[in-house]
Structures are given as C-alpha cells and as structure tokens.
Amino acid sequence: MDNRLKAKVISLFNEPACAKNVAKGKKERRKGCGKPLTPGATAGGCAFDGSKIVLQPITDVIHIVHGPLACEGNGWDNRQSASSGSTLYRNGITTDLTQMDIIMGTGEKRLYKAIRNAAERFNPPAIFVYVTCVPALIGDDVEAVCKHAAQKLNIPVIPVNSPGFIGTKNLGNKLAGETLFDHVIGTMEPEQSSDTDINIIGEYNLSGELWQIKPLFDQLGIRVHSCITGDARYRDVASAHRSRVNMMVCSAALINLARKMEEKWRIPFFEGSFYGIEETSRSLRKIAELLVKGGAAADLIDRTEALIEAEEKRCWERLEPYRQRLQGKRVFLYTGGVKSWSIVSALQQTGIEIVGTSVRKSTETDKEKIKKLMGSDAHMIEKIPPRDIYNRLKAGEADIMLSGGRTQFIALKAKIPWVDINQERHKAYAGYSGILALVQDIDCALSNPVWQEVRQPAPWEEGWEAPEIDDLFDDDHLFNERAS
Description:
Elements: H1 3-13, H2 19-22, H3 26-30, H4 47-55, E1 62-66, H5 69-75, E2 93-94, H6 99-104, H7 107-122, E3 127-131, H8 133-138, H9 142-153, E4 157-161, H10 169-183, E5 197-201, H11 209-220, E6 223-228, H12 234-238, E7 245-248, H13 251-265, E8 269-271, H14 277-293, H15 299-326, E9 330-334, H16 339-348, E10 353-358, H17 364-374, E11 380-381, H18 386-394, E12 400-403, H19 408-413, E13 418-420, H20 431-447, H21 450-454, H22 469-472, H23 475-483
Parallel strand pairs: 1-2, 1-3, 3-4, 5-6, 5-7, 7-8, 9-10, 9-12, 10-11, 12-13
Family: Belongs to the NifD/NifK/NifE/NifN family.
GO molecular function, one term: nitrogenase activity
Keywords: Nitrogen fixation, Oxidoreductase
C-alpha cells in the first residue's frame, strides 16, 4: 500500500462524524471497522467491490477496471441500479492484466490504451479507473496515467484507488466518497439552481426506488439535483456542491462525504430513510425544515404536511386488507446496514411481528434505532451460522424470512416462504407505494398454496398415506385426462 493510500485509510478510520469511531480509543480506532476474517468462510465484498457499488450507478460515464478479468467479471451487473437514460455504465470494461503484463511491466501501457479506446468509442463526459489488487501490488502508477490521459484526451479521467486487499466493502464505499470529493464534486457549475435543490447520498436507485420517491418531491417543488449516485449524471454529481440540503440514506457508507461537503460548502445533512410510512414522512419533514432554514419559501412546511397527510391516508386505506391478514405473522429479517432498522419500522406498522433481525453490517446508531423500535424485546443477531437459521425456521419460530438471495435456500429447505429484500432484488420497496408493494409480496408469499404441498410427507417418509386407488382413477379423472 503506497503512503498516500495509507494516509487516506487512516483518516477514514478517524472519521469525526462517526459516533462509534469517536467513542473508540486511539489504538482501537487505528484498527478500523473491519472484523477479523474466518479462514474458509466467505468474507463478503472487498474494498474494490465497495467503491464500484457507489460509483457505477453514475450512468453516463465509462468505468474501467484495471486488473485481471475476474475482478470485473465477478462484480459486473450484480445490482439492479436502474437508469432513466444513458446505459454507458453497463459496459463491462477491463484491462485484463495477464501474467505477461506483470512480468514485463506493461500494465500502465495497457491502461492508457484502454482509456484512449474508451474515450474514442463512447465519447463519455468522464472515465473512472478502478485500481485492483494486482496493479497496486506491482506498483502501477494509475494516478499518473489518468492525469496524462486527461490532458491528452481533454476529459476527466478519475483514479479510484481502492484495491481489494486494503479492507472491506464498507471501506471501499468510503474511499469512493473520497474520490468524488477530491476529483468530481465542485468541478462544474449547474445549468440551473434554486433554493429547493437537494442531494440524496447513498441511494443507488435499486430496481427504481428513487423513482418511487421523486414524484413526492416534484409535487412539493423540491428538485433532486443529484442522487449520489443512483440514476446519476456526471454533471449533476460534479455540481452537487450548489444544493441546499444533503440527505444520507446510509451513513455507514458515505458519512465522510456528507461531513466534508458541510465543512467546505456549508450544506447541512441528516440521516433518513424511505422505507416505511413513518420514516418516509419523517424524511420529507426534515428536508422541508432544512430547506426553509436555508432560504426556501416558508409555506413549504405546510405543503409538505398536506402532502404527507394525503399520502398516509391513501396508503393506510390500501394497506388495511393486508393488515387484517398479516396481523401476528412472524418475520425473521436477515439483512444489515440501514435496512436492519428501516425494514423493521416498515413492517411493524402493518402488525407484523419481528422475531429477529441481523445487525452484521449495522452501526451503533442503527442498533440504537432497533432498540427504540422493538423495545426490550429486540432480538438482534450479530452473527448466526446458516445451520442455526435453518433450525430456528424449522422449529416454526417464523412464518416467513426476508433476506438476500444467498440465504434464500435456507428458507426453502426449511419449507417456509421467502422474500428478497437485498440489493439484487427486482422489486422496489421505497416510499408509500414501496411499503404497499412489500406487504403485497409478503402476503402473496405466505398465501401461496405451494407451501401446504411441500410440507406434506414424501412417499418415503413416515406419516405418508397413499391415496385411495379409486380417487386416482375415478371416471371424472379419466375423462379430464382424455380431454386434455
């Protein structure tokens, strides 16, 4: 690790806006937020993966991965970050370093050639170049190559220095925020600006969730100047310093960016969520309050309250039939980060009981919110082996499991319903319409008749009873078979 990157990582471990970090001693703080890895166990995403998660949703730029083919192939298109326009971000481009490039030292030449070819072929407004483990270890000067290419090609070429070996996905998220602050934000001026411009930080428009929220802002006359980075355009991110309020959707990832933007451009920030009725309303109120403090028209607060009242009334009316059916149903929630408490808040409002929620990627603030929502009965799970999850589900502790795709097979093996709420999902669950979609999917999964069938004993299991032969070959059955 070069000295510049080492200094950057140390500064992130000393993030003053992170309450958990500030509470640590100097020695503990230097260790960072990563946890020791278990030999033989999956470690989750690396720092490179984390940086690409944050930056790739910028849709009109080219993303070049400098490293072996597998680095790009492993993480390409594994999230449903949707775009309303350009699809340049969906091109998987890599320098495909080989053993010969490492031996002969031709990595920098391959990188420059890739940058030049991408610029000539796609004519993007900017190019992001990601450093992976191999070029970092052999000493490729990616920053120098990017600077030279930017001068020659007359477009921004931005180095993202986050090789996987330096830490976890969360650290990569923060390094991506540092990249945006150092090289992008503040480099351009917006085409238009107003007193009601906001940025949403840490929202990646998974399956179009941003589009569920944006109509609410449109009705209030609030303009989402930049979403960092869901469905983003380079110019909007580069001019994000002119917005009046920053809302963080996931503070664990990009709190360093929000804090630095407040210090440099005096943009106030807060953490909020768009999962659930109560959290959506609270976030809208806070945005309106901060905008009015910053100079927006005072009637914005009244208009916001009127919109919230109308949307909540309509949402509760549509939820009522589902609430009656789902009352008392038990959910096991296996996720992390901001969803560990925001989904809890959303489900509790529908009468669903949370029997357990994982906090494996949650901050201390997230955990405090869970305790506040669930009270003394909060069943927070830091780490649980798949076998234990299976045993709990098989014992009937939950009626349904909400998790990511990697753990769906535990629920299916236990023969209970499952709904995907992770980043790879194809459904959007944000805002007032989003909570309705989530409840509908839970109700649909629970009422699916397949579960009654799969729970019946198999022919080779004890308790199975063979159907009567007359039931299988009655006249109506034979007639229907012939007719089909």
